[in-house]
Write a structure and sequence with these properties.
The complex is a heterodimer of chains A (305) and B (259).
Chain A lengths: L1 H31 L6 H20 L5 H28 L8 H22 L4 E2 L7 E6 L6 E5 H23 L1 H11 L1 H5 L5 H26 L2 E2 L3 H16 L4 H21 L5 H15 L14
Antiparallel strand pairs in A: 1-4, 2-3
Helix pairs in contact in A: 1-5, 1-6, 1-8, 1-9, 1-10, 2-3, 2-4, 2-8, 2-9, 3-8, 5-6, 5-8, 6-8, 9-10, 9-11, 10-11
Chain B lengths: L3 E10 L2 E11 L4 E5 L6 H8 L7 E8 L2 E4 L5 H6 L3 E3 L12 H10 L4 H5 L1 H21 L15 H13 L5 E5 L7 H16 L4 E5 L3 H7 L2 E6 L2 E6 L1 H6 L1 H8 L7
Parallel strand pairs in B: 3-8, 3-9, 6-7, 7-8
Antiparallel strand pairs in B: 1-2, 1-4, 4-5, 9-10
Helix pairs in contact in B: 3-5, 3-6, 7-8
The chains are: A mainly alpha (305), B alpha/beta (259).
C-alpha cells in the first residue's frame, strides 16, 4: 500500500513532465497539422540551458528560490527563441508542400539539433547536485519503516506545472491571441480572411510550445539532475505517445495522456521490470493506434472526398 | 475613382485562361453583382481580389478611406485590415468548434495590435470595444439568441447569416459574398436579399456579389457584370443585362435567341 502510494507520487511527477512536453506536440499539431519531431530536442535544449543557468547563478550565492525563478524565466525565453527559429527555418519555407515534406524536415532538425548539442557540449552525461533537499514524510509502514515521501522538488514541480498550464490555458481559452490560435487550427485560410496573420499566430504557437518544453527541461534538471544530448529523443517519443493517447490536438488530452504515461511507466518499473519501462510506453502507443486512434479527446479525422 | 477598380485582370492556370482581361468597377454604397454560367471565372476573379491568388496580369486598386491600395500581391490579412475588404466562401467556413460569439470575436482579433496586448489597461479597453462591436452586429443581424450556441450546431440558413455577420465584424468597406444564397430555400433567399439591401443602405457597406439565384441578383443589384469563359461580355443595370443578346446566348445557348 505504502509502496504503491510512493509509486503513484513518482508517476504523477514524471507524468507532469511528459504532459508539459506533450502540450507542445499537440499545440503545433493543432495549428499546422504536423508532428514536430524536433520538439524533444527543444526540450533537451531547455534542460541544457537550465543546467548552464544553475551553474552560473548558483555560483553567485543567490537564494535558491531566486535562482530557480531566474533560470526558469531565462530558459523559457531562450528556448522560446529556439522554437521560433526552428519554425522559421525548417517549416515555414515548406508551407503548402505535401504533408510528408515538413515531417522529414522535422526529423532532420531533430538529428541536427542532437548533433549540434553533442558537438557544443560533448557526448558525456552531465550531472548537477540537487538544489533542493528534503521533503514531506506522508506515512510510514509499521513493519519495516518504509516511508512515503513527497520531496520538495516534486512539490515544486507540481506547483510550477499547474500554475503554468493554468496560465497558458487561460491564454488560449480567453484572450484574442488564443482565439486567433484556435481559429487558425480550425481553418487557417478563413482566419487569414478575417484579418488574422496566420504566420504570426503559428510563430507564437511554436514559442509557447518551446517555453513549456523549457519548463519541463528545467524541472527535469531539478528532479533528476542528469542531462545529455540524447534525452530529447526518448522523452519526446513518450510525450508524443502521451499526446496521441489523449487525442492529438486536444490540450487537456495531452495533459491527461502525459499523466497516464508517467503513471504506467512508474508502476510498470515498480512491479514488473525496470528494463522494459521504455517499451511499455510504446506498447501503449501501439494499442492506442490499434484500438482508438483518435485518443481520449481527439476528433476522428474524416477525409472529405 | 470608384471603391474597387479592376483593370484588365487576367489569371492563367497552366494553359487555362480562367479570367481574361476583365475590367469593371464597384461603386461605393452599391451592390455590384458578378454573374455568369458555371466555370465563367467568377470565383477566380474573387480569389484575385481577396488575395487568394496572385493575378497573372492586370491591376486591382481599392480606394478605402481616401487611400489607394494595390491588392495584387497583398497578404490576405492586410487586404482585410488595411483595404477593408471582407469575404465569404461558397461553402460555409465557420469555426465549427467555437460559439457564434467567439466566431465574431475572431474577426475582431486583428484590430487589437500586438503592442496593446502588452499594456493590460489598453488591452482591456480594446477587448471591451471588440465585445461591444460583436454584440452590436449580433443584434443587428438578429443573431443574438444564437450567441452561445456552437457554430456547427446551427441550421444552415442561420450559419449563412453568421458568416455574413462575422465578415461584417472586420468593419469592411466592401463585402465580397460568394454565392450566399446557395442552399437556401425560397423564403430564406428572399430574407437574404432584404438583408443585403439593409447592409448597403443602413450599415453603409458596399457589396460585391457572386450569385446564381437570378431573382436575388436582379432584384437588388445596382450594377451587374456578366462573365463568360473568363471574359466580360456585358455590364449594366438588371434590365440592360437581361435584354443583352450576348447574355441570353451565354445562358441559354446559341439558338435560343433566334427561337
Amino acid at each position: 500500500m505504502e509502496y504503491l502510494l510512493q509509486q503513484l507520487i513518482n508517476g504523477v511527477t514524471l507524468g507532469a513532465i511528459y504532459g508539459l512536453i506533450a502540450l507542445g506536440y499537440t499545440m503545433v499539431y493543432g495549428v499546422l497539422g504536423m508532428i514536430n519531431f524536433a520538439h524533444g530536442e527543444i526540450y533537451m535544449i531547455g534542460a541544457f540551458l537550465s543546467l548552464m543557468g544553475f551553474a552560473l547563478l548558483g555560483a553567485l550565492g543567490l537564494p535558491v528560490a531566486v535562482v530557480i525563478l531566474l533560470v526558469l524565466l531565462a530558459a523559457m525565453i531562450i528556448t522560446g527563441a529556439w522554437g521560433w527559429s526552428l519554425e522559421r527555418l525548417a517549416y515555414r519555407p515548406l508551407r503548402g508542400s505535401p504533408r510528408l515534406v515538413p515531417l522529414i524536415s522535422a526529423i532532420g532538425m531533430s538529428i541536427f539539433l542532437q548533433n549540434l548539442v553533442q558537438l557544443l557540449q560533448g557526448a558525456r552525461v552531465k550531472t548537477m547536485p540537487p538544489m533542493i533537499n528534503g521533503g514531506v514524510e506522508v506515512m510510514q509502514r509499521a513493519s519495516d519503516g518504509f516511508t512515503v515521501t513527497i520531496s520538495y522538488t516534486q512539490i515544486l514541480l507540481w506547483v510550477v506545472t499547474v500554475v503554468l498550464v493554468s496560465i497558458f490555458a487561460y491564454l488560449i481559452q480567453n484572450t484574442s491571441l488564443g482565439r486567433a490560435q484556435r481559429a487558425v487550427s480550425q481553418d487557417a485560410v478563413m482566419a487569414e480572411y478575417l484579418g488574422i496573420n496566420s504566420n504570426r499566430t503559428i510563430s507564437i504557437t511554436f514559442i509557447i510550445a518551446a517555453m513549456l518544453a523549457a519548463v519541463a527541461g528545467c524541472m527535469v534538471m531539478l528532479y533528476y539532475g542528469v542531462v545529455d544530448f540524447y534525452i530529447g529523443f526518448l522523452a519526446g517519443m513518450k510525450a508524443f505517445t502521451a499526446a496521441v493517447l489523449g487525442g492529438i490536438g486536444s490540450l487537456p488530452g495531452a495533459l491527461l495522456g502525459g499523466l497516464l504515461i508517467g503513471l504506467i511507466e512508474s508502476l510498470w518499473s515498480a512491479y514488473f521490470s525496470i528494463e522494459y519501462k521504455d517499451v511499455v510506453a510504446f506498447i501503449v502507443l501501439f494499442l492506442v493506434l490499434l484500438i482508438k486512434p483518435s485518443g481520449f479527446f481527439g476528433r476522428p479525422s474524416v477525409e472529405k472526398v | 475613382m470608384a471603391l474597387l477598380n479592376v483593370e484588365n485582370l487576367s489569371m492563367v492556370f497552366g494553359g487555362l485562361v480562367a479570367v481574361d482581361g476583365v475590367s469593371f468597377r464597384a461603386e461605393e454604397g452599391k451592390i455590384t453583382s458578378v454573374i455568369g454560367p458555371n466555370g465563367a471565372g467568377k470565383t477566380t476573379l474573387f480569389n484575385c481580389i481577396t488575395g487568394f491568388y496572385r493575378p497573372t496580369s492586370g491591376k486591382i486598386i481599392c480606394r478605402t478611406h481616401g487611400r489607394d491600395f494595390d491588392l495584387t500581391g497583398m497578404a490576405g490579412h492586410h487586404i482585410v485590415r488595411q483595404a477593408g475588404i471582407a469575404r465569404t466562401f461558397q461553402n460555409i467556413r465557420l469555426f465549427p468548434a467555437m460559439t457564434v460569439y467567439e466566431n465574431m470575436l475572431v474577426a475582431e482579433h486583428g484590430r487589437i495590435s500586438a503592442l496593446a496586448t502588452l499594456n493590460p489597461k489598453r488591452y482591456a479597453h480594446e477587448v471591451a470595444k471588440s465585445r461591444a462591436l460583436a454584440r452590436s452586429w449580433l443584434e443587428r443581424m438578429d443573431l443574438f439568441p444564437y450567441a452561445n450556441s456552437r457554430a456547427d450546431a446551427l441550421p444552415y440558413g442561420i450559419q449563412r447569416r453568421v458568416e455574413i455577420a462575422r465578415a461584417l465584424c472586420t468593419s469592411p468597406t466592401l463585402l465580397c459574398l460568394d454565392e450566399p444564397a446557395a442552399g437556401l430555400n425560397h423564403t430564406e433567399s428572399e430574407g437574404l436579399a432584404k438583408l443585403l439591401l439593409r447592409i448597403t443602405k443602413e450599415f453603409n457597406v458596399s457589396i460585391l456579389l457572386i450569385e446564381h439565384d437570378m431573382q436575388v441578383v436582379m432584384n437588388i443589384s445596382d450594377h451587374i457584370v456578366v462573365l463568360d469563359y473568363g471574359r466580360r461580355i456585358a455590364e449594366g443595370t438588371a434590365s440592360e443585362v437581361s435584354m443583352n443578346p450576348d447574355v441570353i446566348k451565354a445562358y441559354l445557348g446559341e439558338d435560343a435567341h433566334a427561337a
